């Protein structure tokens, strides 16, 4: 990440690292936490909630109190929104208004607003989640108007591309969309997150303007 930031002429603290801990057990999360990692991403609702609760139990049993943020990054069905709204700090995978409305309605009042990103199907992959690029502005406007949610940005998962330039070209399209939403003033100053880049393409994503890379394999090893 530091090398990619230097190459792009960006300050190293302009990109956050989200550790994707899906399929990894709690001890792996604790090890990453001990090394200073503060944000974790989970794909599967049930697994994520179990880990969040296991961490709370570990703290209650005398583990060191921790301040970590849990990010839901996997596809979200409407029957799972309640448990997500009650446990997670962030959701990156909002791709339709109905999901956002449910999250807003179900976010417990005693918790901080749920931080959300809109997932964009940036390359038109047929089987993929995400709103079409031309629908992003309208969805962003509608989500930004909901209570109990803070619209933070956009998220993409492009089809795998080999080669820096091919990867960068797709990420650059997401960056352009991100700037369009920002320039329209949607979400205000809180709209600051472009969640893109994984183990295989984080350098290209950072070069194109990512502010948050979601990295599993390069941190925890193969799943
Ligand atoms: C699994 C996953 C990642 C991390 O992928 P790696 O290639 O292991 O870094 C990032 N984002 C999403 C949405 C994922 O599902």
TrEMBL record:
<dbReference type="GO" id="GO:0030170">
    <property type="term" value="F:pyridoxal phosphate binding"/>
</dbReference>
<dbReference type="InterPro" id="IPR029066">
    <property type="entry name" value="PLP-binding_barrel"/>
</dbReference>
<protein>
    <recommendedName>
        <fullName>Pyridoxal phosphate homeostasis protein</fullName>
    </recommendedName>
</protein>
<dbReference type="InterPro" id="IPR011078">
    <property type="entry name" value="PyrdxlP_homeostasis"/>
</dbReference>
<dbReference type="InterPro" id="IPR001608">
    <property type="entry name" value="Ala_racemase_N"/>
</dbReference>
<feature type="modified residue" description="N6-(pyridoxal phosphate)lysine">
    <location>
        <position position="22"/>
    </location>
</feature>
<comment type="function">
    <text>Pyridoxal 5'-phosphate (PLP)-binding protein, which is involved in PLP homeostasis.</text>
</comment>
<keyword id="KW-0663">Pyridoxal phosphate</keyword>
<comment type="similarity">
    <text>Belongs to the pyridoxal phosphate-binding protein YggS/PROSC family.</text>
</comment>
<dbReference type="Pfam" id="PF01168">
    <property type="entry name" value="Ala_racemase_N"/>
</dbReference>
<feature type="domain" description="Alanine racemase N-terminal">
    <location>
        <begin position="14"/>
        <end position="222"/>
    </location>
</feature>
